Amino acid sequence: MEQPVLEIVDLQAAYGPSQVLFGVTVRVPKGKVVALLGRNGAGKTTTMKAAMGILPPRGGQVRLRGQDVTGRRPSALARLGIGYVPEDRRIFPDLTVKENLAIASRPGPGGRRTWTVEKVLELFPLLGRLMGRKGGLLSGGEQQLLAVARALVGNPEVLLLDEPTEGLAPVMVKAVADVVQALKREGVTMLLAEQNLGFANQVADWGYVLQKGQVLLEGPMEVCARSEEVVRALAV
Ligand code: ATP
């Protein structure tokens, strides 16, 4: 088997005294889209934060192209090739769309410059029409598109997307889904946290179902989507 781009192995994480991840193992192969599924509080966001070094793991390992990067700072992990779009997007509200993209634009590991601002705008024509608008004046869906585009111009080797469709109007859910699908066709490796099984099934190759900070099961996404156990695990 080819070495996965990102491997999260036996990850343990806690907020103060309360442990929330109990040995989570997730592998993201090159060019694949892997979904972390689970209801609110299952540990999807915590897994991403721990992988990104925002919440230093209490145990286990994070490996990028086989290299142990556990405990590195978020800025170092970004330079090494992990792109992260947090649930709350964190775009700069006082900067324009163009400026938000310009400050994030840089070559990836090895000097790779696949994703220039121009190339990204080909996939996000809506953003092209909003280049002069301040980030804070965008709708939630437009901000989500900008957050994904901004992560992409950093030329990551793997992109972590935390619930990209959450809270969006249906028309923007479709716009974000279209973008994620386009990225998949372009071969972008992604780890996607998602509660929406329908959306996950449209884009993901493989699913991991989290429950109470552990992997309940994993498998091909279309098998996960049909599994009654998975549907139960995701039901609120
Ligand atoms: P969500 O969709 O709500 O983000 P999730 O599956 O991503 O759900 P996490 O956010 O990873 O779940 O939360 C896992 C557990 O950690 C939950 O029990 C949650 O209450 C707890 N938790 C999350 N953030 C904190 C925090 N900052 N301090 C303490 N506990 C937290």
TrEMBL record:
One of its GO terms (molecular function) is ATP binding. This is ABC transporter ATP-binding protein. SUPFAM superfamilies: P-loop containing nucleoside triphosphate hydrolases. The keyword Transmembrane helix does not apply. The keyword Transcription does not apply. Residues 6-236 form the ABC transporter domain. InterPro entries: AAA+_ATPase (IPR003593), ABC_transporter-like_ATP-bd (IPR003439), ABC_transporter-like_CS (IPR017871), BCAA_Transport_ATP-bd_LivF (IPR052156), P-loop_NTPase (IPR027417). CDD domains: ABC_TM1139_LivF_branched (cd03224). It holds the Pfam family ABC_tran. Keywords: Amino-acid transport, ATP-binding, Nucleotide-binding, Transport. Belongs to the ABC transporter superfamily. SMART domains: AAA. One of its GO terms (biological process) is L-amino acid transport.
